[in-house]
Amino acid sequence: MNNPIDDLLQQLRQFRDERDWAQFHNPKDLALALSIEAAELNEVFLWKKPEDADPARVREELADVLLYAFQLADKYNWDIPQLMQEKLSINAAKYPADKARNSAAKYDKL
Amino acid sequence: MNNPIDDLLQQLRQFRDERDWAQFHNPKDLALALSIEAAELNEVFLWKKPEDADPARVREELADVLLYAFQLADKYNWDIPQLMQEKLSINAAKYPADKARNSAAKYDKL
Amino acid sequence: MNNPIDDLLQQLRQFRDERDWAQFHNPKDLALALSIEAAELNEVFLWKKPEDADPARVREELADVLLYAFQLADKYNWDIPQLMQEKLSINAAKYPADKARNSAAKYDKL
Amino acid sequence: MNNPIDDLLQQLRQFRDERDWAQFHNPKDLALALSIEAAELNEVFLWKKPEDADPARVREELADVLLYAFQLADKYNWDIPQLMQEKLSINAAKYPADKARNSAAKYDKL
């Protein structure tokens, strides 16, 4: 039995291939598509307090971001939990808990 | 034993709480942070052919996008594979394979 | 005597040509560069109340957005005030004052 | 007689006030709106070669970016050509012509 991430990746490949979309899916345009979905996600919050955004729309736009993020990772044959795990360790080192506590400053301003 | 997604979510919550960052993590700013990371991902490709971008940098910036996407989903207590699965079904209906084949057009132009 | 917009455009062309950057300045990458600067502008506001963002940094990042916007318009040989004027008229028609008053809704939801 | 920039700013203020939109126009959301328009501009180029993007759509989306950029500058009462002029001087110092020639590298990598 597959895990849920592999299931999704397999379905995304099938979705792409049934439409012959591999020709468009170079990593630069996949990253661009991801950022456009990120903007659509932001649009749900535009001119609003955070709690006034419609969760159903947030959910859909966030899903589109994730679907492109998974496809970009898959393009490079990367293991998704592993790349996240590695970056989380890097971030933990960049933002030591005792310096970063209660601060929204960027790591180079801590 | 946890699955890798739950493992990551648990570590992200711990990372946040050790730094008292829950005060900053409203969904509007999480979405904004995600889109800023998406722009940093795009920057790796800027002025370049897709194949000339440095994969190590793509990997790190994509990881940051995913880390914020997971935190935003977690903020709403959503199951991540499930929300992706649902949107993939919606997208499959919006882009019927026979109409969308070989086309980069948006669904409302098919 | 030139007007300030033509002055800026002429300086931007000289800036580009002294560095032989015309080779990179296709409109797709100029638009991408613009959106990356827009994200840097957003980063000044991240995790903050609008009034707590540092105006000096807002000013610099907004300037970078404008510099790329002007270069993109110039790439197409467009008159900048004229294209803005035209779109402002379109927006006024999309958002009739009596319907749009006090509403942050998108035009297709008015 | 007004110059074209002041004309546009005056019309933008009138457009906003006829709709009572000043209540929404804090600088954080104006910057967010600008970045969403920047993403719509990028979408015109998505999955395409730069020369295949529809210029009429580029023109409209670029106009929306500029309209928000002008409104954000006006929110801070800034002189637009002056802030652009200042940043162009900063950029010229960050990217000395002899080092930056033929290079798409960021200033800290020159």
From TrEMBL, chains A, B, C, D:
Q: Quote the Pfam families the UniProt record gives.
A: MazG-like
CDD domains xrefs: NTP-PPase_RS21-C6_like
The record's InterPro entries line, in alphabetical order, gives: dCTP_Pyrophosphatase, DCTPP
Q: Which residues form a coiled coil?
A: none
- Please state what the protein is called: Nucleotide pyrophosphohydrolase
Q: Which organism is it from?
A: Hymenobacter endophyticus
